[in-house]
């Protein structure tokens, strides 16, 4: 993986979490962490068990919500009121 900076374990955990989320696009990961889609795939392959990686790839392949240009919607998303606020990739305390 050719990244501009070394990723911390916390960064890797957050990228993996974002990659699993249905509505978080690869563009959002690129903007926040500087990783292109293929770099995210490579990270997932390295960091996950083979069976988990295969399950994720099957889930993500062809999913419109993971690609900004293929989405049917442009803004708005569901957010639970119990969800913590995320600011600059850091979870704020309540």
Automatic annotation (TrEMBL):
It comes from the Bacteria. Pfam families: DUF2805. InterPro entries: CHP03643. This is TIGR03643 family protein. It comes from Flavobacterium xinjiangense.
